[in-house]
Amino acid sequence: MAKIITLGEIMLRLSPEGQDRFIQSDHFRIIPGGGEANVAISCANYGHEAYLVTKLPKHEIGQIAVNSLRRYGVKDDYIVRGGDRVGLYYCETGASMRPSKVIYDRAHSAIAEADPKDFDFDKIMEGAAWFHWSGITPAILSRTRLLRSRNSLARLQNVTA
What we know:
It is built from five helices and eight strands, in the order E-E-E-H-E-H-E-E-E-H-E-H-H. It is an alpha/beta fold. It has one domain: UDP-N-acetylmuramoyl-L-alanine:D-glutamate ligase, CATH 3.40.1190. The protein has a four-stranded parallel sheet. Strands 3-2-6-7 form a four-stranded mixed sheet.
């Protein structure tokens, strides 16, 4: 099977139980997720060698995200540990005529403040068949040099991006 690389932010979703509203809740469920993480998990489920490239804090909250990827067979070789926070989003499930509601809290997350030096893209892209990222990833990465580094290496190594 193919080596698949995804680059992006894995976040923690905090949700009230059932269809409770935020203001009715005194606790939230924690569910790790994010577009690129979900793609990596799907690819791993199909038997591919799937990796998520990201940056997460070294503390236990960052470890929740790493453990969730490992649970589904996503390789964590290219997850850099550092920074102070994991991006969060709060998701309230709609009920009847009331729509669902999402509130994002991802400013200053570890991946948003990542530096190109944090990642060895030569090593990451070696042998890769496919590279995936979504439209939000460039928006949250505060250092565009990281994006240029990734784009240049994908082209040089003939990886589908």
